[in-house]
Amino acid sequence: MPKISSDTLWEQAAAEVLSREAEGGEQDGGETVSERTVFLMGSKAGGKTSILLRCLDRDEPSKPTLALEYTFGRRARGHNTPKDIAHLWELGGGTSLSDLVQIPITPVSIKSLSVILILDLSKPNALWGTMDKLLQATQAQLEKVSSQAQQAQKAKPGAKHHMPVRSAARVLPKDYPDRELISPFPVPLLIIGSKYDTFQELDSDKKKLVSKTLRFVAHYYAASLIFTSIKTESLMSKTKSFFSHLAFGLDRVKSVSFDSTKPLIVPAGSDSFSQIGSPPTTDVDITSLHARNPKDLWKKVYERVFPQENTNEQRELKDPAKDPQYSEPQIDAMRAQKDQELDQYKRDAAKSWKGLEMET
């Protein structure tokens, strides 16, 4: 009986592509197509789809993300050259569907994977909880698939072609700020604060706390950070630059902004704990918080000002089969007929049971 492979069709196809590239990658003028994967997640109704469409220059209305959705983007490096491909996964539902991270994060995708976390600045009371749960779920999956890939490689040391294995530990330059004090996210991470236009209406002290907290978190994870709004073209242009850097390897925006009264633009490696300073507090005694580490201290200060809402959101009960954006007239008509037949069967069955006389 032939052995059944545990790899998914996607993993087998990716392995085949890598194998062919290794054998004949210099054909066709030596140009090979670069493929990267970008996984977007974040606040529920936080503007993920709208931001993604703008970054891809797609002029179409955004629709609510149903669970986990896939699309792709292509970009040519020059005239008459192959187009690089970005595989784009978007997780919907805020934190309620965090277990779906296992689908886009696989031993195949991890070698070229980046993560974008989009946080709704207009809802600071849900910000930390959303951020913490999604990053933890993603990091756990990254470490899991990294371990699986390394074990698989050790189990087949004589294999002719091996997909490169990416360890769940980024190697930062030796001169990276606070290199010994931070905990780099396993893959490149971009944190986007969305709805900046609404965030501007907050009290200045609260804006300062949100801004400095996200600067701390971004630096702690060796991530980039940008505040944006789909209503401001200049901010979206800078956001697109960060996105294109992850999706297609283009140069990212050069500008930097640490001013909490303005939209933050903080490329990874440009900040430091000394520049960020301590948590801004006016009525909180930091020494009384009993924090276990700096991250825990920032969390406690943040939650004193912004008590966190319950982020254990209920799974969507809405039936996707009844969603008009997925309508298929012929299939829907057949489904309606089968639903009617099922209802009739239930009614008939109920009557027959009621007519039975139980033996005494």
Describe this structure in words.
There is one protein chain. With 360 residues, this protein is α/β, with parallel strands linked by helices. Helices cover 37% and strands 13% of the residues. The protein contains nine helices and seven strands; from the N terminus they run H-E-H-E-E-E-H-E-H-H-E-H-E-H-H-H. The chain has helices at 9-24, 48-55, 127-155, 196-199, 204-220, 233-248, 273-276, 294-305, 329-355; strands at residues 35-42, 68-76, 83-91, 113-120, 189-194, 224-227, 265-266. Strands 2-3-1-4-5-6-7 form a seven-stranded mixed sheet, with helices on both faces. Helix 5 (204-220) runs antiparallel to helix 8. It is globular. Residues 1-5, 21-30 and 160-165 have low confidence and may be disordered.
Summarize the structure.
The chain is built from nine helices and seven strands, in the order αβαβββαβααβαβααα. The chain has 360 residues and is of the alpha/beta class. It has a seven-stranded mixed β-sheet, sandwiched between helices.
Keywords:
single chain, 360 residues, alpha/beta, 7-stranded mixed β-sheet, 37% helix, globular, disordered N terminus
- Helical fraction: 25-40%
What's the average pLDDT?
83
- Principal-axes shape call: globular
Using the CA coordinates, give the radius of gyration: 25 Å
Helix vs. strand class? alpha/beta
Question: Major β-sheet, in short?
Answer: 7 strands, mixed
Q: With helices defined by DSSP (H or I, 4 residues minimum), what is the helix count?
A: 9
Would you report the number of β strands? Answer: 7
- Quaternary class: single chain
Low-pLDDT windows of residues: 1-5, 21-30, 160-165
Order of helices and strands: HEHEEEHEHHEHEHHH
Strand content: 5-15%
**For the largest beta sheet, what order do the strands appear in spatially?**
2-3-1-4-5-6-7
Q: Between the first and last Cα atoms, what is the distance in angstroms?
A: 55 Å
